[in-house]
Prior knowledge:
By secondary structure, the protein is an alpha/beta fold.
Amino acid sequence: MSVFHINVCDLKKAIPQIKAGDEVYLSGTVYTARDAAHKKIRSLIESGEETPFPLDGACIYYAGPTPERPGSIIGSCGPTTSSRMDVHTPLLMDNGLLAMIGKGPRSKEVIESIIKHSGIYFCAIGGAGALCAKSVRKYDVIAFPELGCESVKRLEIQDFPVICGIDCKGKSVFEERNQ
Length: 179
């Protein structure tokens, strides 16, 4: 297995070298979006309206960060189960989404979309929200504040630890585990 240190803006050119199971430390801008935000973003796409952030080359982190504690930039910031977003993911990838961060396996349709768009799926450490939060340097709510912790946030991260769960060829750490 290899280890990569990559800025999100350089992901597109780095993705072909990253294989399922590789360690990656991501830096740069990612956007949080969970179930409710995905429904709203899907609705915007389907009605031809602008999304809250540019999807082209974007990385979405399936997380609902909690409010910051005194002296902290952000509260707990761990991943949520990615499969809940699977119904929306192919449409977002058709509109430019490049990478996702979450936990757990993905559907066949999402894997096919990852292959089709040369995308990637990263897994963050479930149950380690405090550890994940240590990599967040800045965050802003940018859309749907009425959704509370599920609002869309722009996170600036540095050396955020993830594992490549599904690479651009569709190879998955979840399949390997079951073989």
